[in-house]
Design goal:
The complex is a heterodimer. In chain A, a hairpin with a 2-residue loop joins β1 and β2. In chain A, α3 runs antiparallel to α6 and α4 crosses α6. Chain A is of the alpha+beta class. Chain A has two domains: 76 residues, Beta-grasp domain (Ubiquitin-like (UB roll), Roll), CATH 3.10.20; 69 residues, DNA polymerase, domain 1 (Orthogonal Bundle), CATH 1.10.150.120. By secondary structure, chain B is of the alpha+beta class. Chain B has a domain of 150 residues: Aldehyde oxidase/xanthine dehydrogenase, molybdopterin binding domain (Aldehyde Oxidoreductase, domain 4). Helices cover 27% and strands 22% of the residues of chain B. Chain B is built from 20 helices and 29 strands. Chain B starts with 32 loop residues before the first helix and ends with a helix. Classes of the chains: A alpha+beta, B alpha+beta. Bound molecules: FE2/S2 (inorganic) cluster (2 copies).
């Protein structure tokens, strides 16, 4: 199979790589760049566990091919904040018990930051509508909505 | 009821509940969160070994068929393919998968000769990448000879001949049939004024966590040893059975747990995926990762939940006093029978609910059909029992014109009756069910909602209020897995289900706890830290937690049956007693005081009544590690401070020979009251939540924040079971919804804006600090309460709820039918 090359920015660093053209962005991130914080939860772009930022907007990385991203700017959960300097949205999830197993969580945090970027003080209905493409099987969502509201407040304040 | 032969063992509780705690009872932020929030968790798919290859599985499109031939030559020729294995080839080196039923059903990690459900593995490919492995699967040619398909649970009772899935167990698909009677059922029914009868259907759903099951296996030819990294549980309980399947001695298999991205029971064992990955790694001569994709998980993940049809009867007096129950149940177990009827053992723990019913008869028929087999799902069979009894209670209220709240209040076991032996012989350790009911009623404005309901009805809107008062048995004991088995083939009648930990104090006085069971989505690290901090009056920030693999781990059954918090609290508490004793001994030499005169103060050990005369834990630890021989002679005081402790189940007794008494096996019993308020859109069949109150009594709360998280999450699982989720097999045995696009989890749009959680604390007299389990509760109380609320909403139409899930389509059908019959 012909290989293709792609150059993009991931978490602020330029990356050039050769990939099988059918490689999904999520597999490129996880397997070639070892950024395993981005998860795969479904085969059908339902769950949102794979959410990353593409040029500042939340996208499902299982629904993109790596080769589509020439020149793009991608941010994953690892680029958002590490254990010693968590992003306010990550802190808000911890403070509000917005996670249990943590598998949906990177996607929720990435989507949450995107929501906060686009809505200064998102209300509950806005957050719910925006998050519809992200599934969580553990929390019942209540605390995720609270976390995102709190994280957004912190980000704008 | 007399029960002379029944006895309640003396409590082994050492830590009594207290009025004030150092660390327990605080809503401490979770220890697990930082790594999970920063993408640093290690889930099954995050494991990567040098030179690792990837596997994919070819799955059967047929529900029941003989495998006539498999041609794998094209797949083997595909560049990048390392090996292709059929079931027959795998069976030459690997035995059947673990199975706890008796007699067992034979399941292979890749089917041999015959497939018994859609999605069963037929061949597996190992390749340089998953993409290539998937391509190769498509090149494998399989010829099948279809067999008759059984999907209907009632038809399964009578099927014979080629329709029988496991002919070696006899010419029938009935896997187990047994009737057990507890107490004077006939007399109680004869004395009744009224018998309520309902035919109730509980649908097949499943935990379906967002992370599927996966394993990465390595076989070291030099030592003959397997290492398998997987998101499995019970690996320090029955993990050695995977070694048996792989035909090596148990010490030649090391299972390394990964984080699990949710389980809800579904990852209780995951032995098939581990066995498959091990088999492939040995054949390929390279480490192999196999991770289920979503279809693999839904069609063949061995974790579908209960699928039951009940003919249920409740005998009552005219004043509403509940006397007895008769339950005739058929349960569709699917194609294999891995846990036997463990789910019905479980249900017997609380089959008569929180009510003072004195007798019950259960007639159980477990059948095998051409579906994915059952496993565990949040409730493990008891949630169905709750649905059944609550539906009967509501039906009785309807019949007798009684108020559902008052009816329950009248029949709830009073708080002075504990410890209470219920008809099957299980014990309810403690409780105050009326307090839970009152707390819930205090949180919701029932009168206000009744007014709104009446006003809404005038506008043609349908609001309904439901209530459930349910048991939440916790801390399973092993007997539930075999108590129903035939007397002639009782199987492996084990009684132990312990949990253990080890604790090491480092030379600076900080602690490391090793758990011997995995993180599977709950908060085990936070629980362990809070209990150890409590015992040693230590700063929780000075304690960290890790997980032992099976080489180093010991005697731990792991999470499941809402047991983990109680069990690790017992184990941590026991280990901490050893640590405390040793620290006091060392400190007594350092302070030249008798150990009995010393006390733990926050962060130090001091002489009672002498402020300032103390040593910090760090000083004591340093001394113990490096200066032991400076201390005076003290027989068997050795250097260092560490402890390992095995905590056995707090209170278990054995079933009687004739099973008229099942013994005490699920005795740490919580209680809950759920009150949802719903609105049903009669045009679309959509159900919205206007309010939701859930009050739980899980004894002493270790962490109210995480407990409320479980209640909310479990309740939303219950909403899924009540309204949306159903593994739908058509008559040819095709699973119609094996993806998250058509197997519908509740999303944010289907869940209540706020599930308002309340707590009552009735400490257990049998567990350390009086803790009870609360991991499954939400799902055990929500479905009957929601069913009741919908029935209440649609009362003007005369709609009756006898089966779940009440999807919009199903509800529309019921409403249409009711309207056609003149309702409304
Ligand atoms: S993995 Fe991308 S949406 Fe599920
Ligand atoms: S926290 Fe487990 S799926 Fe969301």
């Amino acid at each position: 199979m012909a290989e293709a090359s792609v150059t993009l920015t991931v978490n602020g660093r330029e990356v050039s790589a050769t990939v099988d053209p059918r490689t999904l962005l999520v597999h490129f991130l996880r397997e070639q760049l070892q950024l395993t914080g981005t998860h795969v939860g479904c085969d059908t772009s339902q769950c949102g566990a794979c959410t990353v930022h593409l040029d500042g907007r939340a996208v499902k990385s299982c629904a993109l091919l790596a080769v589509q991203l020439e020149g793009a700017d991608v941010t994953t959960i690892e680029g958002v904040g590490g254990p010693d300097e968590m992003h306010p949205m990550q802190t808000a999830f911890k403070e509000n018990h917005g996670l249990q197993c943590g598998f949906c969580t990177p996607g929720m945090v990435m989507k949450g930051i995107d929501i906060a970027n686009r809505h200064a003080a998102p209300d509950e209905a806005t957050i719910r509508r925006e998050l519809e493409g992200n599934l969580c099987r553990c929390t019942g969502y209540h605390n995720i909505v609270e976390s995102i509201a709190a994280g957004a407040r912190e980000m704008s304040g | 009821m007399t029960r002379e032969r029944h006895y309640i063992p003396e409590s082994r509780q050492r830590e009594k509940p207290k009025s004030k705690y150092f660390a327990i009872g605080h809503s401490m932020k979770r220890v697990e969160d930082t790594r999970l929030l920063t993408g640093s968790g290690t889930y099954a798919d995050d494991v990567s070994l040098p030179n690792m290859a990837h596997a994919a599985v070819l799955r059967s499109p047929h529900a029941h068929a003989r495998i006539v031939s498999i041609d794998k030559s094209k797949a083997e020729a595909l560049p990048g393919v390392i090996c292709v294995m059929t079931g027959a080839e795998a069976a030459e080196v690997t035995g059947p998968c673990a199975d706890f039923s008796s007699p067992p059903t034979t399941q292979h990690c890749i089917a041999v000769d015959k497939v018994r459900h859609v999605g069963e593995a037929v061949a597996a490919v190992v390749a340089e990448s998953r993409y290539i492995a998937e391509d190769a699967c498509e090149l494998i040619e399989v010829e099948y000879d279809p067999l008759p398909v059984v999907v209907d649970l009632e038809e399964a009772v009578t099927s014979t001949g080629d329709a029988v899935l496991h002919p070696e167990r006899g010419d029938t698909n009935v896997a187990l049939q047994r009737t057990i009677t507890f107490g004077a059922v006939d007399e109680d029914f004869a004395a009744a004024d009224l018998v309520i009868e309902r035919r109730l259907r509980w649908p097949r759903s499943g935990g379906t966590p967002i992370e599927t099951v996966g394993a990465t296996a390595h076989y070291d030819r030099g030592t003959g040893k397997f290492t398998i990294h997987a998101n499995t549980s019970m690996y320090n309980y029955v993990g050695w059975l995977i070694a048996v399947s792989l035909k090596v001695d148990p010490h030649r298999l090391n299972i390394v747990p990964t984080d699990a991205g949710g389980s809800f029971g579904s990852k209780l064992f995951c032995h098939k995926v581990c066995t498959l990955a091990g088999t492939l790694a040995r054949a390929a001569g390279r480490p192999v990762k196999y991770l289920e994709d979503r279809i693999d998980n839904m069609t063949s993940g061995d974790a579908h939940g209960s699928d039951r049809l009940y003919d249920a009867q409740l005998a009552l007096k005219r004043d509403g006093t509940m006397l007895s129950m008769r339950l005739k149940v058929i349960d569709d177990y699917g194609a294999y029978f891995q846990y036997g009827v463990g789910q019905h053992g479980n249900a017997m723990a609380q089959v008569t609910g929180p009510y003072g019913i004195t007798s019950v008869e259960v007639d159980l028929t477990a059948v095998l059909t051409n579906k994915c087999q059952q496993g565990a799902y949040r409730g493990f069979g008891s949630e169905v029992g709750n649905f059944v009894i609550e539906r009967l209670v509501d039906a009785a209220c309807e019949e007798l014109g009684l108020d559902p709240v008052e009816m329950r209040r009248k029949n709830l076991i009073p708080k002075d009756a504990f410890p209470y032996i219920m008809p099957t012989g299980n014990m309810y350790d403690s409780g105050d069910y009326h307090a839970v009911l009152d707390e819930a009623l205090g949180m919701i404005d029932l009168e206000g909602w009744r007014k709104k309901q009446a006003e809404a009805r005038k506008e043609g809107r349908y609001i309904g209020i439901g209530i459930s008062t349910c048991q939440e048995r916790s801390v399973f004991s092993a007997t539930e897995f075999w108590m129903w088995n035939p007397n002639e083939t009782p199987g492996f009648t084990l009684s132990s289900s312990p949990e253990s930990v080890s604790v090491n104090i480092d030379p600076t006085g900080k602690a490391f706890i090793t758990l011997n069971a995995p993180f599977w989505g709950n908060s085990p690290e936070t629980m362990a830290v809070q209990v150890l901090a409590e015992k040693l009056e230590m700063d929780p920030a000075d304690i960290s937690v890790g997980y032992a693999d099976s080489d180093k781990g010991f005697n731990s059954s792991g999470p499941g049956g809402s047991r983990f918090t109680v069990m690790i609290a017992g184990a941590v508490s026991g280990a901490a007693d050893v640590i405390r004793e040793k620290m006091l001994r060392v400190a007594s030499h350092m302070l030249e005081a008798d150990p009995s005169d010393l006390e733990f103060r926050a962060g130090s050990i001091g002489v009672q009544g002498v402020p300032g005369k103390e040593k910090t834990l760090a000083e004591v630890a340093l001394h113990a590690h490096y200066f032991r021989l400076d201390l005076p002679e003290d027989h068997d005081l050795t250097s260092g401070i560490d402890a390992a402790y095995v905590y056995d189940h707090p209170v278990t007794t054995m079933p009687s020979e004739d099973r008229s008494d099942l013994g005490i096996f699920y005795p740490i019993v919580g209680h809950m009251c759920h009150i949802p308020v719903v609105e049903v859109d009669v045009e679309t069949g959509k159900v919205d939540f206007l309010d939701y109150v859930a009050v739980h009594d899980c004894g002493t709360m270790v962490n109210p924040m995480t407990l409320a998280g479980h209640v909310r999450g479990g309740t939303v699982n219950g909403i899924g079971s009540a309204l949306y989720e159903h593994f739908h097999y058509d008559e040819s045995g095709q699973l119609q919804n094996a993806l998250l696009s058509d197997y519908l989890h509740p999303t944010l749009m289907e869940t209540p804006v706020d599930i308002r959680v309340g707590h009552v604390e009735t400490p257990s007299p049998f567990t350390e600090y009086g803790i009870k389990g609360g991991g499954e509760g939400g799902r055990m109380g929500a479905p009957p309460a929601i069913a009741a609320a919908i029935e209440d909403a649609l009362k003007p139409l005369g709609v009756k709820v006898d089966s779940l899930p009440l999807t919009p389509k199903v509800l529309r059908g019921m409403i249409r039918e009711a309207e056609a019959n003149g309702g409304g």
